[in-house]
TrEMBL record:
Its EC number is 3.2.1.52. One of its GO terms (biological process) is glycosaminoglycan metabolic process. InterPro entries: Beta_hexosaminidase_sua/sub, GH, Glyco_hydro_20_cat, Hex-like_dom2, HEX_bac_N. Residues 159-503 form the Glycoside hydrolase family 20 catalytic domain. It catalyses: Hydrolysis of terminal non-reducing N-acetyl-D-hexosamine residues in N-acetyl-beta-D-hexosaminides. It comes from Fibrisoma montanum. It comes from the Bacteria. GO terms for molecular function: beta-N-acetylhexosaminidase activity. Keywords: Glycosidase, Hydrolase, Signal. It is an enzyme of class 3 (hydrolase). This is beta-N-acetylhexosaminidase. The active site is at residue 334. Residues 24-156 form the Beta-hexosaminidase bacterial type N-terminal domain.
Length: 551
């Protein structure tokens, strides 16, 4: 009898979880959600009120989306009114945190409270996800019951840094797609767009003091096609860059959605696009260095001369004028040391500065840049190679070669962002390689990504505070089009969004998949070409060769 009671209890709990997943299909999952009886039904005339003008733009976003989807335009008023169907109210007596919010839905009214505007914005995202999926339609939809299930939500993120990266150096993507990418970042309550703007294969940002960066560095003669190692090329010139006006437009667009844009300017490696226009910054001013047409790592790197530091400070000054973000990413990864080892200048510099090897020379290089960025009131982020030879005083480490870099940084008292390739690289295969377009390698399923735990158990409580967040990385060697990027990124980036937002004990992969099944219908309305979409062959891609299955 006792076993039967236990079995019945399990079945009841399972059905309750399934019901909540279907009715309350919010991603990322709120950290506290209490179901209530009943529903709120939107009246024919919807009135929205806000406490103060500072949060009016967020209410206007809701009104605009409801107008498109329902065909009825809500009114938005500033000032307290009990008549409003949907109210945005400043938190009183609640400790919700900078990004936290409370959402209360009763049969008569919806109230979102928060301490800061970004909290209201995240409350809005949850409210939209409680509505019928048609609310994401770009045009009015008929025969929909516009109702919201009653509930109480109190929610705030687990990590302060919740990022998604995009490499535009290998393949360039238009501003319209970058904005759509930011929209999707914001929808999933992520708050950082890491814009990888420079590479061996292309420099993508206008720097007015150094016009050759875009005149020469943004263009390559051709691109690799097929799998790496086949040495096949398309013979077609390729290029593109963002003007400073376009960059400002993107930054402003992201700010309106509470997304910080962090620029990455690669140094001292991955710099062939710089050297193509300014060879005097490399090993030999007379050496012709082309913009790379092949993927991979190259021996040509920046040299630690004073002229190079002047150049980089000038570039970073213009970059910091465009990007108000606290952080500036300087790369620092995969820098070959061969040319430095062979250089009399570098060897003399090492002796003069008391550097025992080329790793310490790279640390010297990075410390110079760190000091400059810090002098401008900003903070530097670098890939975990910046640990080699000694970490710069104010650096934040982005740990990509596993978790060791993040652990080492945290133990040294430095902040770290976790983005290990085995879990967070969204350019890896997500299904059987024989059935997929060519990817860079690896095999990272949705379930594996969702199961990632950013804070290692090996850290003590004080050290663990330095793990400030998690990020998904998107390297685009094989992603030729925006649709191709979407196919690789979504829905794995949604899994990472939940990793970054939801408390560890609230996560459950089966529950996530149930909520995701409904959420994908929202992505359909948003025209996202996610993996598993009803039509996911709308993009240009390269199918694997016979060797693909050996990966």
């Amino acid at each position: 009898m006792k076993k039967l009671i236990i079995l019945c209890s399990i079945l009841v709990l399972s059905r309750m979880a399934l019901a909540q997943s279907a009715t309350y299909a919010i991603v990322p999952k709120p950290n506290k959600l209490d179901e209530k009886a009943g529903v709120f039904t939107l009246p024919n005339t919807v009135q929205i009120s806000v406490d103060n003008a500072a949060i009016r733009p967020i209410a206007d976003m809701l009104a605009g989306q409801l107008a498109k989807a329902t065909g009825r335009t809500p009114s938005v008023t500033t000032g307290k009114t009990s008549k409003a169907a949907i109210r945005f109210e400043a938190a009183r007596g609640e400790t919700l945190g900078e990004e936290g919010y409370a959402l209360r839905v009763t049969p008569k009214q919806i109230v979102i409270t928060a301490e800061q505007p970004n909290g209201f914005f995240y409350g809005l995202q949850s409210l939209l996800q409680l509505m019928p999926v048609e609310v994401f339609s770009p045009a009015a939809v008929r025969n929909v019951v516009w109702s919201v299930p009653c509930c109480t939500i109190e929610d705030q993120p687990r990590y302060a840094y919740r990022g998604l990266h995009l490499d535009v150096g290998r393949h360039f993507f238009p501003v319209s797609f970058v904005k759509k990418y930011i929209d999707l970042i914001a929808l999933h309550k992520q708050n950082v767009f890491h814009w990888h703007l420079t590479e061996d294969q292309g420099w993508r940002i206008e720097i007015r003091k150094y016009p050759k960066l875009t005149q020469i560095g943004s263009q390559r003669k051709q691109s690799m096609v097929g799998r790496y190692g086949e040495n096949r090329y398309d013979g077609t010139p390729y290029g593109g860059f963002y003007t400073q006006d376009e960059v400002r437009e993107v930054v402003r667009y992201a700010q309106e959605r509470f997304v910080t844009v962090i620029p990455e300017i690669e140094l001292p490696g991955h710099s062939m696009a710089i050297l193509a226009g300014y060879p005097e910054l490399g090993s030999n001013p007379d050496k012709l260095v082309p913009v790379a047409t092949k993927w991979g790592v190259f021996e040509d790197v920046l040299f630690p001369r004073e002229e190079t530091f002047t150049f980089l400070q000038d570039v970073l000054t213009e970059v910091m004028d465009l990007f108000p973000s606290q952080y500036i990413h300087i790369g620092g990864d995969e820098c070959p040391k061969t040319q430095w080892k062979q250089s009399r200048f570098c060897q003399d510099l090492m002796k003069r500065e008391g550097l025992k090897d080329e790793h310490e020379l790279q640390s010297y290089f990075i410390r110079r840049i760190d000091k400059f960025i810090t002098s401008k009131g900003r903070k530097m982020i670098g890939w975990d190679e910046i640990l080699e030879g000694g970490l710069s005083p104010n650096a934040t480490v982005m740990s990509w070669r596993g978790t060791e870099g993040g652990i080492a940084a945290a133990r040294q008292g430095h902040d770290a962002i976790m983005t290990p390739g085995g879990f967070c690289y969204l350019d890896h295969y997500q299904a059987d390689p024989k059935t997929q377009p060519i990817a860079i390698g690896g095999f990272t399923t949705l379930e594996k990504t969702y199961g990632y735990e950013p804070t290692p158990d090996s850290l003590n409580a004080e050290e663990a505070k330095h793990i400030i967040g998690v990020q998904g990385n998107v390297w685009t060697e094989y992603m030729l089009t925006p649709e191709y990027v979407e196919y690789m990124v979504w829905p794995r980036a949604i899994a990472l969004a939940e990793v970054g937002w939801t408390q560890k004990d609230r996560k459950n992969v089966a529950d996530f998949k149930r909520r995701l099944a409904l959420h994908q219908k929202r992505l359909d309305f948003l025209n996202v070409n996610y993996f598993g979409a009803p039509v996911n062959t709308r993009f240009q891609y390269q199918m694997p060769t016979q060797t693909a299955s050996k990966q």
